[in-house]
Amino acid sequence: MLVDSLGYKYNIKTDKRRPGTIWRCTQRPFCKAVVNERNGEFSPAHDHVCTANIGLEKVLNIRKEVKAAASKRVFDSAAVITEEVMLASGLAQDVALHPTLPNPKNLARQANYARRHAR
Length: 119
Description:
- The structure is a single chain.
- The chain is α+β, with helices and mostly antiparallel strands.
- It folds into two domains: about 1-45, no CATH class; about 55-115, no CATH class.
- Helix content is about 35%, strand content about 20%.
- The protein contains three helices and five strands.
- It has helices spanning about 55-70, 80-90, 105-115, and strands at about 1-5, 10-15, 20-25, 35-40, 40-45.
- It has a five-stranded antiparallel sheet, with no helix packed on it.
- Strand 2 (about 10-15) and strand 3 form a beta hairpin.
- Helix 1 (about 55-70) packs across helix 3 (about 105-115).
- The longest helix has 17 residues, at about 55-70.
- The mean pLDDT is about 85.
């Protein structure tokens, strides 16, 4: 998955006939936006029709940090780990204001699922 600074997510499209990589917006078939990657350089091919998720990159980093901390601290409560990471990121107060931020209970469940084999 590719996330840009504007708040759009892209999935990779495999096409063996073309050099480079093609990234398509995850809002397909509604949005036809495409980004071409060649030699590490990205160039947009089509414009977005969908709306951007402001702060998406920060939300994805929170999810990643929660899962990583849960994998390291196997016997700690996932809810406590989630709360600590959200407080450290500064988004704990803005849960209702941030539309893409998942529910803390769901983050705790994802953390438990990520560390299920480590116990």
